[in-house]
Amino acid sequence: MKVQEIVKVLEGIRLKKSRGQNFLINKKIAEKIVDLLNIKEDERILEIGPGLGSLTDEIIKKGGRPFCIEIEKRFCDFLKVKYGKKIEIINDDFLKMDPEDLKDFRKCIGALPYRGAKKIIMKILLEFENIKTAVFCVQKEIADIIVSDKNSKNYSPLSVIAHLRCEAKKIMNVSPDFFYPKPGVISTVVLMDFKKGLIDYDFYRFLCVVFKQRRKTIGNNLKGIINIDIKKRAEELNPQEIFSLYESLKDYFKV
């Protein structure tokens, strides 16, 4: 959509800063993002946060059938009028949805809101075994976290779980000029090809503990749960090493 069209649609609507709502307005970028999914004719595609439909347009052009989850009712109403029966859309919060209700989808896409992107991606990593390919446009900082490895300042629980579940790579950066309203950060498109099944949710709890205070050793972070003499920090271990450590201690993290 062009800026003038978006401005017209948004007349009388106040965007919520708490949700980081910025709309992709560059058609060529939207096309490149959707191309990464290699959509087959009549294939159902899960789209999270379609907003005003910049990616939805391209999914339909590629022969896909978008199933959109949009938290804002006003955007849902707009998309229903714009696309009619070409899409399925529900007004809901993806973070509160049951993965069982979305188990038929193999591909997922979204130009995710800056404020909720990390939680959305973590939910997919932890709860969606059916998703095999995901493409997201997110704040560059989040993309850096997803692909980072040990001894990096961005290395975190999200990095570890992403490495263990999929092959993730940054495809391209997207200028703030290609969004409306113009954000104060660069965005990055990330492609995630899932190779392995779900990881025990207790492992995520373990990661939150050992990464809680990054400069402390794993042994110090685990005090109060288990007394163990581990001199290394979590950021010094690669994902598989951290998972192996968890396997030896997992009985302490069961709920």
UniProtKB/TrEMBL annotation:
It is found in: Cytoplasm. Gene3D superfamilies: Ribosomal RNA adenine dimethylase-like, domain 2, Vaccinia Virus protein VP39. It is an enzyme of class 2 (transferase). GO terms for cellular component: cytosol. It catalyses: adenosine(1518)/adenosine(1519) in 16S rRNA + 4 S-adenosyl-L-methionine = N(6)-dimethyladenosine(1518)/N(6)-dimethyladenosine(1519) in 16S rRNA + 4 S-adenosyl-L-homocysteine + 4 H(+). The keyword Transferase applies. The keyword Magnesium does not apply. GO terms for molecular function: 16S rRNA (adenine(1518)-N(6)/adenine(1519)-N(6))-dimethyltransferase activity; RNA binding. Keywords: Cytoplasm, Methyltransferase, RNA-binding, rRNA processing, S-adenosyl-L-methionine, Transferase. Residues 29-196 form the Ribosomal RNA adenine methylase transferase N-terminal domain. Its EC number is 2.1.1.182. S-adenosyl-L-methionine binds at N22, L24, G49, E70, D93, A111. Belongs to the class I-like SAM-binding methyltransferase superfamily. rRNA adenine N(6)-methyltransferase family. RsmA subfamily. Specifically dimethylates two adjacent adenosines (A1518 and A1519) in the loop of a conserved hairpin near the 3'-end of 16S rRNA in the 30S particle. May play a critical role in biogenesis of 30S subunits. PANTHER family: DIMETHYLADENOSINE TRANSFERASE, DIMETHYLADENOSINE TRANSFERASE-RELATED. This is Ribosomal RNA small subunit methyltransferase A. It comes from candidate division WOR-3 bacterium.
